[in-house]
Amino acid sequence: MFSKFTSILQHAVEALAPSLPLQEDFVYHWKAITHYYIETSDDKAPVTDTNIPSHLEQMLDILTQEEGERESGETGPCMEYLLHHKILETLYTLGKADVSGKLG
């Protein structure tokens, strides 16, 4: 219940907040995800009960929008950030550790 409330609140804030440049918005969502893992103890809630799926969806939407605004073959700043900061590798590692922690 609390996670649904925070998700609704987050969407309301995002709707009322002035729009940020895509890269700033992308970095905001990534930092929100990493902040969860840094600040949460070992007794983490299932990812589905957090705002992580929403942040990931926002990141995907930003990448999709950025790709649509670019010329063919041109890499945008959000994609560059994703590649340079190895976000996919980090997500894989976090997911693998999360599953291992539940199985072990």
UniProtKB/TrEMBL annotation:
This is FHF complex subunit HOOK interacting protein 2. Pfam families: RAI16-like (PF10257). It comes from the Eukaryota.
